[in-house]
Amino acid sequence: MKKIWLASFAAVLFACNNDKQETPAAGAASSKSSYSTDGKTVTVYTTADSSDLRISRTDSSLQFADFGQPMETQVCVFVDPSKTFQTMLGIGGAITDAAAETLAKLPKDKQDEIMKAYYDPENGIGYTLARTNIHSCDFSSGSYTYVKEGDKDLKTFSVDHDKQYRIPMIKQAIALAGGKLTTYASPWSPPGFMKDSTHMLQGGKLKPDYYQAWGNYFAKFIKAYEKEGIPIWGVSVQNEPMAKQTWESCIYTAEEEGNFLKTSLGPILEKEGLKDKKVIIWDHNRDLIYQRVSTTLSDPEVAKYVWGIGYHWYETWTGSDMMFDNLKRVAETFPDKHLLFTEGCAESFNPTRLSAWALGERYGMSMINDFNAGTVGWTDWNVLLDEIGGPNHVGNFCFAPVHGDTKTGKVYYTNSYYYIGHFSKFIKPGARRIITSSNRTDLLTTGFVNEDGKVAVVVMNKGSKSLPYRLWIGGKTVEVTSRPHSIATLVF
Question: Contact 191/200 with Cβ under 8 angstroms?
């Protein structure tokens, strides 16, 4: 088994200088005057298989030199910072019951280490986005709601359950992130008494008679969390609305999701003074995303409430590859709406795979392609899980970028953590995506220009060979070598 990169966090090289708005949706490029490399030097940070490199500075002060027209035999990554696209909302992960409970069971010094590793912008990877669950999901120790059984009027509504673990963790994350962490919430199921199946697990549908009560539940959740010091930026209507799961789940057709939004959730948020909260539809996989979105948004009375479209990466369960082109079709057809990656993880936890390099490469491939398709924000699933990939009350144990052994106190950083960090540490909210293009299939790339003018270009080598290449901008280049099975961020 390869060495697992543990929590001696100081050993990770974060000696780099890191260097807010409403984010426009994907659309046509906007152009600025031509970009000049004059006076620019390139610093390269690398994470690579079969090495100790983990977001480590591997090159610095690389100088651009005249080059001109490359030949087909010359490997290049072409960059055009003068062409800009969607604005970055943020990058982060989900703070679930499981993540918060695992954190609380670790020694205090390990708790602090993990939180800084994620949310500290200088000494960590600078997460700026968070998702959380509205009452229980599978990654909870058990099913629960915020009301007593049958309380349609929500008189017993209380988030006291979350005050033990989840609310303190989110508040600590906000503080470490500098006082702002864009946080949105998703429900896995309404309370059982609101559904035709009478229970939270195994699908079922929200009964129309409870549309108003369920819409009010959202509003009460938002206000309760904000009273606890956690601003809620937005909500998704339903997590995975086409999946009947053994855990909390609820089925909506596109028409049903739209009807609930236009008759209940949307008007209730307006009435309760929460009109500024963003509403996300779909929140499921890429495979059905175009059909779903085109159907839901065909009704203007629904579309007016929709900020964007959430999606996951689990379409691979059918044997399919990740279907990035479907995102492009949505961005092309609905340029006024926003694409937001809301969940992804490696399933079927196995401790012998904690050092598997494929874990991180799945993240790198998804993030690069998702951003290039117009995605404005990217949210990993659980930020932390325990030594068995839980807790999960139905045994759906999975991988997280970081695992904490609640018996020994050890902390394990998978390479997924570092792959995500190559984006989150260097690409900040407000950054605009720019043109990047590779002339070799093994080199995947995306890039952004931050509000301070610093450009961050991510280059991932998914192949088993070292690839020397030139970073080409306007006829000038710097020479870089991409290690086998590596990811690098080039900052200039």
Answer: yes
Task: From the candidates 240, 248, 256, 361, give the one annotated as an active-site residue.
Answer: 240
Assess whether 257 carries a catalytic annotation.
no
Statement to judge: residues 31 and 156 lie in one domain: no
Same-domain pairing of 483 and 466: yes
Report how many domains make up the chain. 2
pTM score of the predicted model = 0.94
- The CATH number of whichever domain residue 256 belongs to comes to 3.20.20.80
CA distances from 395 to 106, 249, 268, 389 (A): 21, 15, 36, 9
Q: What is the pLDDT of residue 27?
A: 56
Residue with tokens 């070799």: 440
pLDDT digits (tens, 9 = 90+) for 354-393: 999 999 999 999 999 999 999 999 999 999 999 999 999 9
Q: Among 113, 256, 315, 343, which one carries the catalytic annotation?
A: 343
Active site residue 22: no
Rounded to whole angstroms, what are the CA distances from 14 to 42, 48, 177, 327, 481?
16, 15, 16, 33, 21
Domain final position from 403, 426, 449 = 426
Nearest to 374 by CA among 443, 328, 326: 328
Whether 470 and 382 share a structural domain: no
The residue type found at 175 is A
